[in-house]
Amino acid sequence: MNKDIYVLGMETSCDETAVAIIKNGTEIVTNIVASQIESHKRFGGVVPEIASRHHVEQITLVIEEALQEAEMTMNDIDCIAVTEGPGLVGALLIGVNAAKALAFAHNKPLIGVHHIAGHIYANRLVKEMSFPLLSLVVSGGHTELVLMKEHGKFEVIGETRDDAAGEAYDKVARTLDLPYPGGPHIDRLAHIGEPTIDLPRAWLEEGSYDFSFSGLKSAVINTLHNAKQKGNVIEPENLAASFQQSVIDVLVTKTLNATKEFNVKQVLLAGGVAANKGLRSELERAFKQVEEVELVIPPLALCTDNAAMIGAVGTILFENGKRSDYSMNANPGLDIEQNN
Ligand code: KG4
Ligand code: ZN
């Protein structure tokens, strides 16, 4: 009988200090997330120095809490997986160094993982993967279509040329004086408004799977400023609904096109913006028509940053024989296609 594999995952790339324990790559034993959102809110965005300070204060507490909740000790852990990049360098450093110290102290294998690979593997905690698959990754820092033909191998077939989807949401929210992070607030407003304002959709060249959201973001900001100058009132909920419709149209259409071109069996939604209710329901509606493709959408808690997803991808890399050594460093520019 094969022994169960327990991987301790750690994530500190942005504003969540998170530790999780994952059994056999698919089952969450424990998943602790200490969020710093309250500390960053008053600055309207994540302040890197404050993020690092919080990670330092929280990391050992969160590791202890995860082990305690799982009723496990480090002796039960087979491997430590940690986000190596991309992210804020000072924030990543705390997780990477804590993971190295823990691996050294307990003589455990150490594996550096890619944050976006983690977001994609959050789906494996919901549904076993079947290849080839396509993942639509939409987060605060990334908007990508990633093709996977086997475990642990990622091919980026399209990416944003400017702002990430989440970044556009947060900037539009700030223009509407909504609190940080703005994505959920725009989502909420969009549901009570109507998409009455005509906004651009950046389709780019024929056949391209790349994205661009900065033109849309500027169009929203200009619409608001022009209205203000003329003394016209724009209902924020209608602007939110129009913006959201523009983003979703492009995301869903490009995902559908890539699904057909690459003949994939599954489509996985990943990243913080995957929590968006409009995007979730539009994707569900669109993929109802494509019966041969299975759409997987993780629960909200697995869409935003967490360590369960890091443990999930860490397990695959562990099984594939990947090991990092103590020279591993935080790598904000880590490439998902190279990191396996
Ligand atoms: O993946 P994530 O937690 O962090 C990164 O790795 O970037 O994503 C955070 C992003 C933020 O931009 C936030 O506004 C956005 O996800 N977000 C949403 C929603 N919930 C979170 N965007 C749109 N609608 C939502 N419901
Ligand atoms: Zn993330």
From TrEMBL:
HAMAP family from the UniProt entry: TsaD
Annotated localization: Cytoplasm
Reported cofactor(s): Fe(2+)
Boundaries of every Gcp-like domain copy: 27-311
Coiled coil: none
Gene expressing this chain: tsaD
Record's catalysed reaction(s): L-threonylcarbamoyladenylate + adenosine(37) in tRNA = N(6)-L-threonylcarbamoyladenosine(37) in tRNA + AMP + H(+)
GO MF entries: tRNA N(6)-L-threonylcarbamoyladenine synthase activity
Residues reported to bind substrate: V137, V138, S139, G140, G141, D170, G183, D187, N276
Alphabetized UniProt keyword annotations: Acyltransferase, Cytoplasm, Iron, Metal-binding, Transferase, tRNA processing
InterPro entries recorded: ATPase_NBD (IPR043129), Gcp-like_dom (IPR000905), KAE1/TsaD (IPR017861), Peptidase_M22_CS (IPR017860), TsaD (IPR022450)
EC supergroup of this enzyme: transferase
Organism field: Bacillus seohaeanensis
Primary location class: cytoplasm
Protein name: tRNA N6-adenosine threonylcarbamoyltransferase
Cofactor note: Binds 1 Fe(2+) ion per subunit.
Family: Belongs to the KAE1 / TsaD family.
Documented EC number(s): 2.3.1.234
Job description of the protein: Required for the formation of a threonylcarbamoyl group on adenosine at position 37 (t(6)A37) in tRNAs that read codons beginning with adenine. Is involved in the transfer of the threonylcarbamoyl moiety of threonylcarbamoyl-AMP (TC-AMP) to the N6 group of A37, together with TsaE and TsaB. TsaD likely plays a direct catalytic role in this reaction.
Residues holding Fe cation: H115, H119, D305
